[in-house]
Amino acid sequence: MFPALHDVLAGVIGGIIVALIGWGLTVAKQLYEKKKFPIEGEYLTYFEDMEDGQPVMVTSLTSIKQKGTRIIGKNTLPDGRSWTIDGNIVGTGHVAGVYSADATYDDGVGSFYLKINGDNLDGMWSGYDNENKTTASGRYFFKKKAQITISEATEADIPSILNLSIPLFGEGYIKDVSDYINSQDGAAFVARENDKVVGYALAKRCEKNDLRNLFGEDEKISVDITHADKAGYLGVIKTIGVSPQRQGHGIGEALFKEAESRLKEKGVKIIVVPGWVDNGKTNIDGLMKHFDYSPFMFDPEYWKARCEKEEFQCPNKKGTACVCGIKFYKKSL
């Protein structure tokens, strides 16, 4: 009897050891694969879609969890709609999988294929578009959210701010950074990544009756903005600048959120944001939609006089002609 019991115990212990070894090898393999292709994290996600018959690039947030080569994530739009993505890392650095809408009334479902490129994933989606009731496809890419710290700008940050602004807006476009830093109504922030300034934001609460300095003499302004101007409740987020190499990683969004919050603290009731328009494209349009700002005015010759007098060196200027305009957005707080 005892030898038999001994054999049983030996078998059980042996089985446990084998199971533990197998489990350990599986975990080790998963850790190796995760280290080889570490894509777990938070991403800004962009996908091509159709709105009112026009192609648009939609911005959303995606959180990805990874277990070895298996990835599961949730893709969430600003309006709360979300999709679950489920895929596997295949080959030499690709992700293939499927997505499906989380809402029971949404039949959106499809597949995606992405190439891993450092902190970015880039590829295509294809599937059924529940909003437009049709099958469609388009580009689908992910940019990992930057690990940044945001702080109030100081005089020591001015050289970094000016150096960032030159490739974005041209030399001479920004001259009054100190006014935003030192003024009681001003707000200036910088974003740092690995102790390097990679973005900045300049905003202020406008003085009473300061409207024409912002819009010009000939523009017809809506009554809500003129009232806020007279009452001293108007604010402007003049500039959001992010290093070209770090754009699309959530830095501009974080800076904008900080600037908007500070203006609200200063008693601003309506915020106006100017957006640079180049060849019909407004770079901040996606950011404005994300924060629920509405366009209300477009001036195709807003920069013309300053640009052609070479008061600043526009990076988009074609020969001697100014080709840029401005689109204004607004939001009531």
TrEMBL record:
Keywords: Membrane, Transferase, Transmembrane, Transmembrane helix. It comes from the Bacteria. GO terms for molecular function: acyltransferase activity, transferring groups other than amino-acyl groups. The chain crosses the membrane at residues 6-28. InterPro entries: Acyl_CoA_acyltransferase, GNAT_dom. The keyword Transmembrane applies. Residues 148-300 form the N-acetyltransferase domain. Pfam families: Acetyltransf_1. CDD domains: NAT_SF (cd04301). Gene3D superfamilies: 3.40.630.30. The keyword Phosphoprotein does not apply. This is GCN5-like N-acetyltransferase. It comes from Methylophaga lonarensis MPL.
